[in-house]
Amino acid sequence: MAKAKHVSETPATRMLKKLGIAYTEHTYEYVEHGGAKESARQLGFDLHQIAKTLIMEDEGARPLVVVMHGDREVSTKNLARQIGAKRVEPCKPEVAQRHSGYMVGGTSPFGTRRKMPVWVEAGLLEFERIYLNGGRRGYLIGIAPGALVQALGAQPVEVALEK
Question: Membrane-crossing residues (predicted)?
Answer without folding.
Answer: none
